[in-house]
Write a structure and sequence with these properties.
It holds the Pfam family GyrI-like. With 201 residues, the protein is α+β, with helices and mostly antiparallel strands. Helix content is 30%, strand content 29%. The protein folds into 2 domains: 89 residues, Multidrug-efflux Transporter 1 Regulator Bmrr, Chain A (Alpha-Beta Barrel); 110 residues, Multidrug-efflux Transporter 1 Regulator Bmrr, Chain A (Alpha-Beta Barrel), CATH 3.20.80.10. The longest helix has 24 residues. The radius of gyration is 17 Å and the shape is globular.
Length: 201
């Protein structure tokens, strides 16, 4: 049976267009950090390196799976955590981020390491050395499904802020999380779907 995040984990990927609360447990990720404008080539190169490893992990697992409950899995969507910028006007060149792709619980560090070595043998890419495997736990979060361009996200952030104010909540982390449910290179900008999250208490 194939593990499909859209089906098995609707509670984490089924955000609504109005703010709601969700509790996010510990999750495993492959991740890489960077700084600068996400429209620049360095960002897309980091995304590419991350996906090359993600698909190598998937294919290796599928090839080796025999008596496991799941014999394959769908690659999880790209995510990003973006640090708060203390500026009155957003300067994209100053953005700091970590982009990541979640891994199923049955993928361990040794599997990731082995897949990484295979990718390095096939294609030399210095960015591969910057990818790490780690866990994150955001815990209690306010989330919303933002539909539209990334530049319009402040509209959804304002809704989240109002929800927090109405429910006596405050942020606990200096970053927010974005989960990209479709491909910005393939979908019309007005139809992009992005889950936005603030960790709160």
């Amino acid at each position: 049976m194939k593990y499909e995040w859209k089906r098995q984990e609707k509670e984490f990927y089924g955000a609504k267009k109005s703010p709601t609360l969700v509790t996010v447990p510990v999750q495993n990720y492959i991740m890489i950090s960077g700084k600068g404008n996400p429209n620049d080539s360095d960002f897309s190169n980091r995304v590419s390196a991350l996906y090359s490893l993600a698909y190598a992990i998937k294919m290796a697992y599928k090839a080796a799976a025999t008596q496991n409950e799941f014999d394959d899995f769908t690659v999880f969507p790209l995510e990003g955590i973006w640090q708060n910028i203390e500026e009155t006007e957003l300067v994209k060149e100053n953005l700091e981020y970590t982009i990541m792709i979640r891994q199923p619980e049955f993928i361990c560090k040794d599997m990731v390491k082995a897949a990484l070595e295979r990718v390095k043998l096939k294609k030399s890419n210095p960015l591969l050395d910057e990818i790490s495997f780690d866990t994150m736990q955001d815990g209690k979060c306010v989330e919303i499904l933002h539909i539209g361009t990334f530049d319009d996200e402040p509209i959804s952030f304002e809704k989240m802020e109002q929800f927090m104010l109405s429910n006596n909540l405050e942020r606990t982390k200096s970053y927010h999380r974005e989960i990209y449910l479709n491909n910005a290179n393939l979908v019309e900008k007005s139809k992009l779907k992005t889950i936005l999250r603030y960790a709160v208490k």
